[in-house]
């Protein structure tokens, strides 16, 4: 049985990097096999108006776009054993990563935690009512679910890996039960031919682009912490297969499950929709357990990565206490249902920073630095990653430029791709300009203040 993790933000020694692609695949796949992803898949059909298979294609495209960028960034974990927030000091500066990207990731992760708890509570509420248990109040239920998730999250990576390996087959089994209920019901709305044809939905570019933007923006919010999953992994190959394959496969499954119910009934929560398909108390109890299990998988990961982000900003806390504080905040946020009822709006707003930040990190780490980092200097506040008073101004300006582009464009322009590209392009342009100044004597000290 795994114990409490003792590592904080220091590099994981090479001899402890033993997590191969199968475990990484299981962790990431199980993370994405959760009620919020079902909800996003359903919204792709019900809100964006896409036929089922076009919704699957749009979600998979957005996920592939995000992970094509994030996999090379995440490989800093396998290369150096570093958590993402510490590695970001090489791009944003010693203080830039601690005071800018770390707080952003804490906010993003606590949002995802609360959204998972609330979406799960909505499903539990519907199933309990269908079983004759009466109406259960949403907010207290969400808070109780969040507290349970938080208690598991504070234990660390080994416990997370152990729990997720147990949860994965259960989640797949419960997902199979949902699909079986869909295709075996006598309700004509669920007929396979009708749902696959999706007569009430129609493909539009605006709808397709908005779904790509939402799912890519959602995944980009993990850019500052994607390496956290990989720092116990020994090779880049393990990261490529484990992360990319699992992310695209999981979103395909969740979109199909959520989108199928939405195409049939217009309901955006498949756990709510399925209560009309069976009167079996045993089956409903199994579905209730499925909700608890799948939200556990997602929220352990959310709280764990948020804790690492907080300890990067405030090292004196240590990982355990930082995760406890983050978990407490996430539990409190789970009392606000607006995070689910307006999920697409919240995700788009979170993505406005995440996509440009991903572009800047990719441009700096993969293109400029060619994946080379001076690890000891990451922990030296007066070292080469100090930049201007600890902040890489060029990176911050580039992120701001990408955010402006992201907000200026409408969804049909595929704004997430423009925000990503703008952040990276502005940063490379500033870096190229600074490099050109090196030919002039006396500029080098000033250059260190700029980039």
Task: Summarize the SSE layout with pairings.
Elements: H1 21-32, H2 35-46, H3 52-80, H4 84-87, H5 89-92, H6 94-130, H7 138-153, H8 157-184, H9 192-197, H10 205-220, H11 236-265, H12 270-273, H13 281-313, H14 318-333, H15 338-341, H16 343-368, H17 375-378, H18 393-408, H19 415-436, H20 444-450
Helix pairs in contact: 1-8, 1-11, 1-13, 2-11, 3-10, 3-11, 3-16, 6-7, 6-13, 6-14, 7-13, 7-14, 8-13, 10-16, 13-14, 16-18, 16-19, 18-19
Question: How would you explain this protein's 3D organization?
Answer:
It contains 20 helices and no strands. It is mainly α and 451 residues long. The radius of gyration is 22 Å and the shape is globular. It starts with 20 loop residues before the first helix and ends with a helix.
Concise account of the structure shown:
With 451 residues, this protein is mainly alpha-helical. The protein has helices at 21-32, 35-46, 52-80, 84-87, 89-92, 94-130, 138-153, 157-184, 192-197, 205-220, 236-265, 270-273, 281-313, 318-333, 338-341, 343-368, 375-378, 393-408, 415-436, 444-450.
The largest sheet, given as strand count, sense and whether it forms a barrel, is: none
Oligomer: single chain
Rg, Cα atoms, Å: 22 Å
Shape: globular
**Would you tell me the structural class of the helices and strands?**
mainly alpha
Percent helix: over 70%
Q: Please write the string of helix (H) and strand (E) elements.
A: HHHHHHHHHHHHHHHHHHHH
Number of helices: 20
Fraction in beta strands: under 5%
Number of strands: 0
Distance between the termini: 47 Å
Instruction: Provide the low-confidence segments as ranges.
Output: 446-450
Query: Mean pLDDT across all residues, rounded?
Result: 86
């Amino acid at each position: 049985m795994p114990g409490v993790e003792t590592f904080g933000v220091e590099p994981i020694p090479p001899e402890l990097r033993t997590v191969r692609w199968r475990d990484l695949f299981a962790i990431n796949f199980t993370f994405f096999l959760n009620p919020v992803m079902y909800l996003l898949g359903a919204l792709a059909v019900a809100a964006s108006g896409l036929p089922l298979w076009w919704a699957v294609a749009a979600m998979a495209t957005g996920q592939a776009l995000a992970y094509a960028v994030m996999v090379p960034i995440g490989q800093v974990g396998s290369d150096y054993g570093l958590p993402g927030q510490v590695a970001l000091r090489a791009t944003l500066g010693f203080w830039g990563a601690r005071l800018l990207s770390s707080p952003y990731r804490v906010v993003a992760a606590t949002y995802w935690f609360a959204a998972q708890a609330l979406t799960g509570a909505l499903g539990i509420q519907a199933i309990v009512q269908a079983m004759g248990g009466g109406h259960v109040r949403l907010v207290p239920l969400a808070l109780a679910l969040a507290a349970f998730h938080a208690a598991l999250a504070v234990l660390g990576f080994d416990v997370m890996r152990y729990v997720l390996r147990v949860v994965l087959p259960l989640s797949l089994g419960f997902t199979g039960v949902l699909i079986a209920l869909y295709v075996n019901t006598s309700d004509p709305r669920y007929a396979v031919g009708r749902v696959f044809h999706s007569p009430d939905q129609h493909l539009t570019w605006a709808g397709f682009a908005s779904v790509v933007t939402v799912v890519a923006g959602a995944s980009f919010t993990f850019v500052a912490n994607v390496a956290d999953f990989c720092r116990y992994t020994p090779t880049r190959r393990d990261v490529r297969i484990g992360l990319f394959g699992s992310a695209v496969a999981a979103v395909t499954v969740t979109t199909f499950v959520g989108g199928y119910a939405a195409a049939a009934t217009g309901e955006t929560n498949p756990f709510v929709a399925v209560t009309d398909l069976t009167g079996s108390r045993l089956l409903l109890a199994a579905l209730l357990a499925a909700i608890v299990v799948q939200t556990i998988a997602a929220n352990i990961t959310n709280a764990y990565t948020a804790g690492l982000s907080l300890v990067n900003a405030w090292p004196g806390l240590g990982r355990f206490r930082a995760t406890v504080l983050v978990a407490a905040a996430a539990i409190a946020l789970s009392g606000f249902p607006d995070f689910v009822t307006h999920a697409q709006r919240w995700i788009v707003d979170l993505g406005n920073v995440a996509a440009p930040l991903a572009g800047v990190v990719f441009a700096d780490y993969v293109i400029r630095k060619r994946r080379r980092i001076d690890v000891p200097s990451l922990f030296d506040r007066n070292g080469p990653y100090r930049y201007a008073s600890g902040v890489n101004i060029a990176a911050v300006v580039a992120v701001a430029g990408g955010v402006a582009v992201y907000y200026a464009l409408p969804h049909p322009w595929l704004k997430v791709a423009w925000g990503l590209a703008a952040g990276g392009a502005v940063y490379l342009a500033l870096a190229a300009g600074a490099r050109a100044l090196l030919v002039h004597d006396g500029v080098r000290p000033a250059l260190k203040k700029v980039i």
